[in-house]
Amino acid sequence: MKFHFRIIGARNKFFTALVVFFACFLGVFAHVNAQSANSTNSYQNDFVLEPGKMEIFVNPGDMITRTIFVTNRVATPVRFKIETEDFIGSTDKNRAVILMGDEKSPYSFKDNLIPESREFTLNPGEKIGMPIKIMIPADAQPGGFYASVLVSNQPTVDGTDQVANRMQGKTRVISRVGVLLFIRVNGAVEEKGFVEDFSMKDDQTFFSKGPYAFNISYQNDGTVHLVPYGLITIKNLFGNNIGTIPVDAYFALPKSVRFREVTWQNAPFLFGRYTANLEMHLGYGTGVDIKSVTFWVIPWKIVIIVLVSLLVIISVVYMFLSRFELRRK
Q1: What is d(CA 113, CA 83) in angstroms, rounded to the nearest whole number?
Q2: Beta strands at 288-297 and 272-281: parallel, antiparallel or unpaired
Q3: 47-185 belongs to which CATH class?
Q4: Which class for 147: exposed (0-12), middle (13-18), buried (19 or more C-beta within 10 A)?
């Protein structure tokens, strides 16, 4: 009996050890698979440039440094190139800024931006901080100056890959991403802007349902960029507030018109005539522009269903009353 119990005890220990071994093995296997999945998902065949824009206040003769960050999210090493380029505002509602290429703008500053390096290479998943030196001329006039730091990928392939790509008709795509620099030299400047137009998108004034989109045109006639913001309040026919839509702050460059579309996404059920009132802070001082637009909401499908239902109910009641009168006679 004692021998029998020893065998059973040894057998239990063996199976326990076996279970522990497989549990550890499966745990390590799952951990490796999870790491592999995370590593694979981190590569998205592009690169990231941060931040998107910088607003900098300086004095004549200043020399400052700002840092941009580039992250390689390609699964292979990538060579990057840095360029500087001026940009200006636009009057096209589909373009906020226009890059000037080799040309200089009236607010040119590209020659005063000096990257620490013009070219560099990043391994997969690697991130670098690239210092940009900003030189302010001693005779710089007060006002706004606008330039961008552009980063482009320059894929590195060997001769064999180049020949294979040509034979297969493949084209390498080069992407360019930019950081916009809004540089303002302190001093006496002209700040002047106003809401040129506030209207419904596509000038539509009749709707059957939402969403409801509004267009704002802001004109900057000054010498520096402005950052307007505001609030749209919706009122019904009786003057009651039924909703508000924030207009987040955005930039408007000098001597340009900046278009902004704001959509009322989570609007309640509407029926009838409504007025949208825009209260726009001009981005300087305490100036405020107030504009309004009127629109109608007629959910015609619902109206038709209600009218047909009423017609059916009236017909049924009429037939019932007619038969009741006949029976009485």
Answers
A1: 9
A2: antiparallel
A3: mainly beta
A4: buried
Q: CB of 207 within 8 A of CB of 189?
A: no
250, burial (CB in 10 Å: exposed 0-12, middle 13-18, buried 19+): middle
Among residues 67, 68, 76, 177, which one has the least CA distance to residue 122? 76
Give dist(CA 256, CA 105) in Å, integer.
13
How much is the pLDDT for 172? 55
Using alpha carbons only, what angle is made at residue 258 by residues 255 and 87, rounded to the nearest 5 degrees?
A: 60
Q: What angle do CA 81, 104, 137 make, to 5 degrees?
A: 90
Going from N- to C-terminal start, the domains of the chain cover 47-185, 193-298, 302-329
Residue 285's Cβ-count burial label (10 Å; 0-12, 13-18, 19+) is exposed
E strands present in the chain:
47-50, 53-58, 63-72, 78-89, 97-99, 113-115, 119-122, 127-135, 143-154, 176-185, 193-200, 206-207, 212-220, 229-235, 241-247, 256-264, 272-281, 288-297
| Token representation of residue 157 | 């392939």
C-alpha 136, offset from chain centre: 31
- CATH classification for the domain delimited by 193-298, as one of 3.40.50.1010, 2.60.40.10, 3.40.50.300, 3.30.565.10: 2.60.40.10
Q: Which residues lie below 8 Å from residue 257, measured CB to CB, with a gap of 6+?
A: 89, 90, 91, 196, 217, 218, 219, 220
- Are 98 and 148 in contact by the 8 Å Cβ rule? The answer is no
Contact 201, 222 (CB under 8 A): no
Residues 162-203 pLDDT 10s: 444 444 444 456 789 999 999 999 999 999 999 999 999 999
3-state secondary structure of 237: coil
Length of the chain as a residue count: 329
| Mean pLDDT of the 73-81 span | 94
Same topology, domains 47-185 and 193-298? Answer is yes
